[in-house]
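A.,

Following up on our hallway conversation. Structure tokens first:
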């Protein structure tokens, strides 16, 4: 940012906004191409064309398709957690909040995570940080739900949160939203209090 020091503030803000727009266009174009063609067939030239920029400009932002996909995933993760908090806050009592968050997260995993793509992008500090946040959210929901009798209390919430998150990872390989809903139903059945 050193070269913006001499620029008027308004101009520097405009330049930064333009950079964000170009970066977002690159991320969006890459995600669309990967969804359409598959991970292995997307090239930097295709991305530049789809984003409406030259290849030289693209390389100023990213060195490879993999780097773009990692940046895309970071952006998605940054958007997903606030969405899950919003879903939690809109739901009613503790059991409903848990179910709503399980369903919302299962849809996210199903929509954004093919196995090949997940293996590529699920690395780095942003993923570790997101997993910790998600685990804490799930643990807190389970603690509340257990206190109301909506879920079992014979297993620590920390362990139940791990169970839920590992089970929800299966949503990435499911063929339909109906299958995702069935997965959530099975997870909820495993959380029911023992009779």
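Then the amino acids I'd put at each of the 195 positions:
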């Amino acid at each position: 940012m050193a070269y913006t020091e001499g620029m008027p503030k308004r101009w520097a803000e405009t330049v930064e906004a333009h950079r964000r727009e170009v970066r977002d266009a690159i991320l969006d174009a890459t995600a669309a191409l990967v969804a359409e063609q598959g991970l292995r067939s997307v090239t930097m030239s295709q991305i530049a064309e789809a984003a409406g920029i030259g290849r030289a400009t693209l390389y100023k932002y990213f060195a490879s398709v993999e780097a773009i996909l990692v940046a895309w995933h970071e952006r998605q993760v940054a958007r997903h957690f606030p969405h899950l908090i919003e879903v939690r806050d809109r739901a009613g009592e503790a059991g409903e909040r848990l179910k709503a968050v399980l369903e919302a997260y299962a849809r996210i995993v199903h929509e954004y995570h093919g196995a090949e793509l997940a293996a590529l992008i699920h690395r780095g500090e942003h993923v570790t940080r997101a997993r910790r946040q998600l685990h804490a959210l799930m643990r807190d929901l389970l603690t509340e739900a257990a206190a109301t009798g909506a879920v079992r209390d014979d297993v620590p919430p920390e362990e139940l949160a791990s169970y839920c998150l590992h089970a929800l990872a299966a949503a990435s390989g499911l063929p339909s939203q109906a299958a995702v809903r069935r997965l959530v139903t099975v997870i909820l059945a495993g959380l029911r209090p023992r009779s």
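The two ends are 62 Å apart (CA to CA). Curious whether your intuition agrees with the design.

B.
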